[in-house]
Amino acid sequence: MKILLVGGGGREHAIAWAVAKSPKCDKLYAAPGNAGIAELAECVPISVMDAPALVSFAKEKDIDFVIVAPDDPLAAGVADAFLDEGIRTFGPRKNAAIIEASKAFCKDLMKKYDIPSAAYETFDDPDKALAYLDTIEAPYVIKADGLALGKGVLICQTIEEARDGIKEIMIDKKFGDSGNKVVIEEFMTGREVSVLCFSDGKTIIPMTSAQDHKRAGDGDTGLNTGGMGTFSPSPFYTDEVAKFCEENVYQKTIDAMAAEGREFKGVLFCGLMLTDKGPKVLEFNARFGDPETQVVLPRLKNDIVEVFEACADGTLDKIDLQFEDNAAVCVMLASEGYPVSYEKGYEIRGLENFKDKEGYFVFHSGTKFDENGKVVTNGGRVIGVTALGRDLVEARANAYKATELIDFDNKYMRHDIGKAIDEQ
Ligand code: AMP
Ligand code: GLY
User: Fold this and answer.
1) How confident is the model at residue 420 (pLDDT cuts 50, 70, 90)?
2) Which residues does a 6 A CB cutoff place in the pocket of ligand 1?
3) pTM as predicted
């Protein structure tokens, strides 16, 4: 098959790696891809948001199957653009991707269908939102309704901070129209777990669990980022928790979406918090996580193209999803200053150390070729180094050792990815 992958980050590099090793894949294209993906796919410089150009490229090359990976194009209807032309596509339509693109929609859905989540109120009037703050207690959880590059959630310890947050989102429009509405939510405490699930609209199959470290600094300090590292599986996602989520979250959500006329085909990413009152949903995403994918896919035993086809064709009930009985840790190598401001364009040294190094993966997040053909830094998050191990402690030791093999100016990373697992 000729396959087109839409996207160009670390998640897409991991997907490209899994797709490229499938015997079903004869030729892989990526739009736009990146310097790492270029080793596995032919990269074409088309923006992920340019649906007409993507569709005409797919027709010109006779593409058999498309994978739309990032949130923005899914929310904008890029999967619909392919599907409407009769091109088989993995990824939800716009009317289903709304489960991520509108937090108000998502919260209302969970309330209507009794899916466990934090109590909340939604506001489209800033004065009413501000008045509501006076009736509740700190900490305040304020969420911009729409997509905001993972930065639209504020956890405020004081009422002043919370008021400023409402003003920034709803009046100053820090996230544009994404801040037309806000959700103000009950604060929850507990361990966080991410469970990515494949769905064909009727059947849903959870993948192995993972956990992300979202804060920029060691000890979960500093600003929220797109994710500084991940590990899989999560030791906190016990059989009991899995059973609860299978009964109360996964299937219920897919059925709820179908009942609303929003059939969900693709990956449903369930962000869970394990509270003392049981697991509750923090958020849903309509796609693979980044960098969760970088620890989940290296452990997948199945041919991923078969799984993608089953999701698109509605035959997921025929798939027996299997993961290796091992563990993976991904440490993100970032540019100093991320997520605020950072320099780009530095040469990345040591990538050759990973050629054919079994059990290790370098997934590029923000890289490109410079005019001399050298791979240089091109983003806040640059490269995720993933290592496998028999268990999490071994995988973590392997991953940190491997981070020493890659070097670039202003290299920055956290030193405690997966640390919670040592407390076991
Ligand atoms: P979200 O994008 O909704 O997953 O939120 C981003 C992060 O904010 C989550 O990973 C949590 O760490 C935190 N968060 C979101 N909602 C809550 C909540 N209701 N209580 C406590 N923390 C939260
Ligand atoms: N790692 C969190 C996300 O992909 O949204």
Assistant:
1) low
2) 118, 141, 143, 153, 155, 185-188, 192, 214, 271, 282-283
3) 0.96
